[in-house]
Specification:
The chain is an alpha/beta fold. The chain has a single domain (51-241), classed as Phosphopantoate/pantothenate synthetase (Rossmann fold). It has helices at 9-24, 29-44, 51-66, 76-93, 106-117, 161-168, 183-187, 196-210, 215-224, 227-241; strands at residues 70-74, 96-99, 130-131, 141-142, 152-156, 172-176, 190-192. The strands form 2 sheets. It has a 5-stranded parallel beta sheet, with helices on both faces. A two-stranded antiparallel sheet has the order 3-4. Helix 1 (9-24) crosses helix 4 (76-93) and helix 3 (51-66) packs across helix 9 (215-224). The longest helix is centred in the middle third of the chain and has 18 residues, at 76-93. It starts with 8 loop residues before the first helix and ends with a helix. The protein binds ligand PTJ. Ligand PTJ binds at residues 28, 30-31, 33-35, 37-38, 41, 75-77, 101-103, 157-159, 176-179, 182, 195-197. Ligand PTJ is lined by residues 28, 30-31, 33-35, 37-38, 41, 75-77, 101-103, 157-159, 176-179, 182, 195-197.
Length: 242
Amino acid sequence: MIPKNHPRYNSLMQRHLIEEGIHKGITSMQGLIAQGRGETFDYLLKEKTSKYAEEAIHATAALLLLSIKPVISVNGNTTVLCSKELVELSNELKCSIEVNLFYRTKKREKLIEKEFLKFNKKILGAGKKIRLKGLTSNRGLVDVKGIYCADTVLVMLEDGDRTESLIKAGKKVIAVDLNPLSRTAQKASISITDNVLRVIPLLIKEIKKLKKKKTSELIKIVLKYNNEKNLINSINLLKKGI
Ligand code: PTJ
């Protein structure tokens, strides 16, 4: 048991959740490597949400509220880190959650489906799928009722081949990635450089707040947001952390 007053309680807890996820067969072994990568960047961010991440979360909330069919994509890491919060987010947006795995096995898909059922959420992606054009990896297999026809996709903690293909398919992509230099972060429409565990509760709060705004005000928020500038600011912040 990690004592709550431990200075690195949050990141140690996350490591513990990922380890547990591997034992349960939900998270891939490579998920542990992804966790390690994330911890390095989070350390440089002092494990705090920056004002740039807050700006990106603000724009994300507006974009999600403007979207006709947003879909939340989950993998082995996000399932063990924040399934409860992701269900809350999907309920707030009345949108689908879809499992999309890089290291795909039927067994892992079913285990992830079961994890979400604990919160009464039936997710997409564990059944029949079709291939997204231009993407040969497992990530290219998507649910016809989900990511395939989504206008906006929220992706978290993933390697970079899919975001580019989703953008080419005419979709908006929101990425949560602690590494602003990753291919996913660089190609996304909005990149949130922060820990997914901090992002999702803040995003739910922001969506609740922005729900009261008019469509024209939401459009203004999205148009004002500059992802390129936000990424540069986030990279400079990480440099300061060294
Ligand atoms: O479950 P699967 O089979 O789909 O596999 C998923 C993994 C995570 C193995 C796969 O997507 C992968 O290999 O990812 P990468 O290439 O390691 O990229 C993960 C990115 O997420 C890295 O840039 C990390 O810095 C970042 N990251 C890690 N932990 C967090 C994070 N970003 C936000 N919050 C975190 N907690």
